[in-house]
Amino acid sequence: MRLEYIILLAILLSCLSIQAYAIDPGDIAVPSISAANMDMPKPKISSPTMNVPETKTGPLTQPNVNSDQTLNQTGNASIGSTQVIPVQQEAVPMDVSGKWSIKFGDRTDIWLDLTLWSSGGDKIMGYGTMTEGDAKNSVTATGSFTDPDLTLTVKSATSEYVSKRYGECDLYLSRVDKTLSGTYVLKSDELTSSKGNATAKKL
Prior knowledge:
Helix content is 13%, strand content 46%. It is mainly β. The strands form three sheets. The protein has an eight-stranded antiparallel barrel. The chain has a two-stranded antiparallel ribbon with strand order 1-2.
């Protein structure tokens, strides 16, 4: 450590300007040593200038917002709030197999009682009775069901019977909650005799 100090002192002395001069002959010359200027220049610090892009409405200003505080508030809001995701329930397909009672609008003199079942795919078959006043006549039914629509053609099971008025009934029904609603067409000898609204309820 001492050796480094000596070397540093020698370098410092080599940088000094030593001037010796004598006042009169015979006098000892007195060296004149000018001390080194050890003062460091003061640094000039200037605030940096930022070029803020201008928009059509004026220069863009940055709000004084603490980003950490904003992040914490956002995180706390997310943790504190409970997000409810609605669950969509799939509609359960309607099973048309079974016994049905079918009414024809305001008419009380005629109605159908049918037993239906699926015969494969969308095909529907059935049988039952058509009540006309006091007479009960056997009928068969064929058609198709593609939820929510049911189409049926009901025909008399016998070619001729007493008190026969209607030989065929066409039904165009759609699912409404647990019932089927739509229209009907009653035919006699392939001619339209009556039509209107129909409602089918499962027994």
